[in-house]
Write a structure and sequence with these properties.
- The complex is a heterotrimer of chains A (292), B (326) and C (253).
- With 292 residues, chain A is α/β, with parallel strands linked by helices.
- Chain A is built from twelve helices and twelve strands.
- Chain B has 13 helices and no strands.
- Chain B has helices at residues 2-19, 33-67, 80-97, 99-129, 135-159, 164-172, 180-197, 201-207, 211-216, 221-243, 249-260, 265-289, 298-323.
- In chain B, helix 2 crosses helix 11, helix 4 packs antiparallel against helix 5 and helix 4 packs antiparallel against helix 10.
- Chain B is globular and about 60 Å long.
- Helices cover 32% and strands 28% of the residues of chain C.
- Chain C contains eight helices and twelve strands.
- In chain C, the strands form three sheets. Chain C has a six-stranded mixed beta sheet with strand order 6-7-8-4-9-10, sandwiched between helices.
- Classes of the chains: A alpha/beta (292), B mainly alpha (326), C alpha/beta (253).
- Chains in contact: A-B, B-C.
Chain lengths: 292, 326, 253
């Protein structure tokens, strides 16, 4: 009868769907817009970006990391994991030998293509903003088949909020300048560092329209006259010798926040330690926050 | 006549350079006179620095091409570029690796490190070539030293990849932090180099007909060549230390001058300096105002400007030579 | 009176003995030509006389005042022009000729009136005055050679050494060169030229015949022995005949 034939077809369709979903239990999409299909959560993971390594460990899956890049140095247990060279130019052979289920890395076209052609699955994830971090945590959680991405993100967010709340009202809108590197390369409002600084209630002299890490004309900085300058330890000594910078408010009143070597990693990585980064920045702002 | 024309060009560019602002295209001075003083603390030395550095590079380019009788020679051919880069890389990495070294280096500064690096590289080249006698050997040794030091630099950077971004500013050239001290140093350096090199210009002229002819004309080529190599090293060292590696200015300036006038080396050295100053000054201004308030690395613009102009000149010459007499 | 004397000259280049037992006296105020087959060491000998090639043995200049002349004095006294000189293409013809005045100019000064006169005279003698503002690189082979000759003449030296001065020159200009040399000799200057063109060499006063690094004969052009020496070193493939009051070398077919 017609009805029974339709029922049979429906049953077949359902069975087909069930079968296909059983075959590919996981689907994760990455920053290239490509979707990765995995039969089961990844048990052997190679990470070639320090922030991704930190995220994996924060999701309590540190033991699944079988290989990391040279710069993944936190948590300290990663020292015992096989090092695979630089994140942009990793040792392909060593990766293949480890037989990972998936490799998570940032954009490096040649390495990705090579790994793909050798049958290694690659997930390209490049967290650049806070929103990215939240999304990437979710992707990693899906990939690893663990829960807790949301919880982790909320706790990071909460840490940042705590730091923000610890800032006094009068510091709202204080002009800050964050120098990433000699150049001067600055962190603008649209960078992840800039986002933290904004949430701490400060005003970045570098607007978002210039891109996340622009190379700026030093004259612009002098004209903008920031009240606090964030800078690395090695550049701090050169600040006063820069022509024209002696007039900057921050330098005259000595409101220069020097980021120590060990703090650089924390601040420079958009990852689970952003809460700590916010704390470091807030702490310095409080000390130098004798704003009029 | 053409000499004066080039000089005028330079003065014009100078005026324009000082006029154009960091992030406002035409400096509107009437408002905020206090601010005007600030920007001249930065803008004026920066522009003058670009001019001085360009002059040094133009001079060294003409010297290099005359000494080695090779129209493709550039000022960095004795390995000074790689030496300076290695010096800067070593300084940056050393600071991060051991803060005690940092105090030393803070006194020396990156400019000092770059200068020493350049000098050491040239000395190494001279030692390898065992003196100033054979230009071909000098050239080869310069290439070898350049490549080897470049590899050492890459190795150093492996120790601490964080400094890669700082290195990039150096390797693409920048006048960001050129202050009055730098300007004065470069200006004096240029004067010294010019005063020594211009009278020796006839050595380069004599050499252009061959070493034997030069010797038969009574020129002490061994000694004079040594002096000129020292001047070359000094000029390049100074410019690299203050503004980093700026490509093309040294290579292109003598060619640009020659395409406009026929001159002996004594005049070429001078005019090439002026041309180099104009080239770098223009590039620096463009670098600052094209994407204001962002900056482009100066080296990119010198390549575009210098290379573009040379290509245009070559096209012109090709048309005139195919159309006219040979 | 002798202008240049050599004593037991020998030159070794690499492992090869290029010149052996050279004992010659070149007379002042005369035009001496050096002829010989390829590889006989003519260019090397000329370079040694000019002081551009290290050698064993001695080269002396009896006509010269001082015993040990300085580099500059020597350059003012002796001018040398080499074979096939490349380079200098960017300079103007006038500037190339002015290079010849380097031994006479002091370091810091611009060219003097005397320098300009010497250059003008030299360029006019070689008929290169008209193209004095053109670049050397734009000239044809013959024009270029005449400019290089002018450079040598501009030195106004007592001794002029020229290696293959007639290369690229067409017959009319070869004749011009002959007149030039005659004029120099008339001014009591010593001219030594290495020539490939034997017939041209037979127009000089004296001939040095070379073969395999040694002097086979030195003698006057009119001397029968000289002719025989020349014919011998060229494997008797040429014959020297008297034609129209001159000696010419004719190929033996």
């Amino acid at each position: 009868m017609n009805l029974s034939r339709i029922m049979k077809q429906l049953m077949l369709c359902c069975l087909g769907l069930l079968a296909s979903s059983a075959l590919f239990a996981l689907q994760v999409s990455d920053d290239r817009g490509m979707t990765l299909d995995l039969p089961s959560p990844a048990k052997r993971v190679v990470s070639l970006l320090p922030s991704l390594s930190e995220m994996v460990c924060a999701l309590h899956a540190c033991d699944r990391l079988v290989g990391v890049d040279r710069n993944s140095n936190f948590p300290l247990t990663l020292k015992n994991v096989t090092s695979l060279g630089s994140g942009l130019d990793p040792n392909i052979e060593a990766i293949v030998v480890l037989k990972p289920d998936v490799v998570v890395m940032s954009h490096a076209h040649r390495a990705v293509e090579r790994l793909n052609s050798l049958g290694v699955k690659v997930l390209v994830l490049e967290p650049k903003t806070h929103a990215d971090v939240e999304r990437v945590l979710q992707s990693l959680a899906t990939l690893l088949g663990v829960e807790g991405a949301q919880k982790l993100w909320r706790s990071i967010d909460a840490e940042i909020n705590d730091s923000a709340n610890s800032m006094p009202l009068k510091s709202k809108g204080a002009r800050v300048y964050f120098e990433v590197n000699r150049g001067p390369y600055a962190a603008s409002e649209s960078s992840f560092i800039g986002e933290i600084l904004s949430r701490l209630g400060t005003k970045n002299i570098i607007p978002a329209s210039l891109g996340p890490f622009p190379l700026v004309n030093p004259e612009f900085i002098v004209k903008a006259n920031p009240e606090v300058i964030f800078i690395t330890a090695q550049e701090a000594s050169t600040l006063s010798s820069r022509p024209g910078w002696g007039r900057i408010n921050a330098i005259q009143n000595k409101h220069v926040c020097v980021i120590a070597n060990h703090e650089e990693d924390i601040i420079a990585r958009p990852g689970p330690r952003m809460g700590q980064a916010a704390a470091i920045l807030a702490h310095c702002l409080l000390i130098h926050g004798r704003f009029e | 006549m053409l000499l004066l024309l080039t000089l005028c060009l330079v003065v014009l560019y100078w005026g324009v350079s000082v006029g154009s602002a960091g992030f406002v295209n035409i400096g509107s001075m009437p408002n905020e006179p206090g601010l005007a003083a600030i920007v001249f603390d930065i803008r004026l030395p920066r522009t003058l620095g670009a001019l001085c550095c360009g002059a040094l590079l133009g001079l060294s380019g003409a010297l290099a091409q005359g000494l080695f009788r090779n129209p493709l020679a550039d000022p960095y051919l004795l390995g000074s570029a790689s030496g300076a880069t290695l010096g800067v890389a070593a300084a940056l990495v050393a600071f991060r690796v051991s803060p005690s070294a940092g105090h030393w280096l803070a006194r020396l500064g990156l400019t000092g490190a770059a200068f020493i690096g350049a000098m050491v590289a040239v000395l190494l080249t001279l030692a390898l070539a065992r003196g100033f006698q054979h230009t071909f050997r000098l050239l080869l040794c310069g290439i070898v030293v350049g490549v080897v030091l470049g590899a050492l630099c890459s190795l150093t950077l492996l120790l601490d990849p964080q400094v890669l971004q700082s290195m990039q500013t150096f390797m693409l050239g920048s006048t960001s932090y050129v202050g009055w001290n730098s300007v004065i140093m470069m200006a004096i350096g240029w004067l010294v180099c010019i005063v020594i090199a211009v009278p020796l210009g006839r050595l380069l002229d004599g050499l252009s007909l061959g070493e034997s002819t030069a010797i038969s004309l009574g020129l002490n080529i061994g000694f004079l060549r040594a002096v000129l190599v020292c001047v070359l090293a000094l000029a390049v060292g100074l410019s690299v230390a203050q503004t980093g590696l700026i490509a093309f200015v040294g290579l292109a300036s003598p060619h640009l001058v020659r395409s406009m006038v026929k001159v002996t080396h004594a005049h070429l050295l001078l005019i090439s300096s002026v041309m180099g100053a104009a080239l770098l000054g223009a590039a620096d201004v463009l670098a600052r105002c094209l994407l204001a308030p962002r900056e482009l690395p100066v080296g990119v613009l010198t390549a575009v400007l210098g290379g573009g102009y040379l290509l245009w000149l070559m096209q012109k010459r090709q048309f005139s030579s195919t159309g006219g007499e040979s | 009176m002798n202008s240049i004397c050599t004593q037991d000259l020998a030159v070794v280049l690499g492992h090869k003995e290029v010149l052996r037992h050279i004992n010659i006296q070149i007379k002042k105020g005369m035009w001496t030509s050096i002829v010989g087959p390829n590889g006989s060491g003519k260019t090397t000998l000329l370079k040694v006389l000019a002081g551009l090639q290290a050698c064993k043995g001695a080269v002396t200049f009896p006509g010269f005042d001082t015993q040990h002349p300085s580099r500059l004095q020597k350059a003012q006294y002796l001018a040398w022009m080499g074979q096939e000189q490349a380079g200098g293409d960017e300079l103007s013809v006038y500037d190339v000729a002015m290079l010849g005045r380097i031994p006479h100019r002091s370091w810091l000064s611009a060219p003097s009136q005397k320098d300009h006169q010497a250059v003008k005279k030299a360029l006019q003698m070689t008929h290169a005055w008209d193209c004095r503002y053109r670049r050397l690189g734009e000239l044809s082979g013959g024009e270029r050679q005449r400019v290089l000759l002018a450079r040598v003449l501009a030195v106004e030296s007592e001794i002029v050494l020229m290696d293959e001065p007639l290369s690229h020159l067409d017959p009319p200009h070869q004749v011009d060169w002959l007149h030039l040399v005659k004029q120099l000799v008339a001014e009591h200057k010593t001219v030594v030229s290495v020539l490939h063109e034997v017939s041209m060499a037979l127009l000089s006063d004296e001939i040095l015949v070379m073969d395999q690094g040694q002097i086979r004969h030195q003698g006057l052009v009119s001397d029968r022995l000289t002719h025989q020496a020349i014919e011998r070193v060229f494997g008797n493939r040429i014959q020297i005949q008297h034609v129209a009051q001159r000696w010419v070398a004719l190929p033996l077919i």
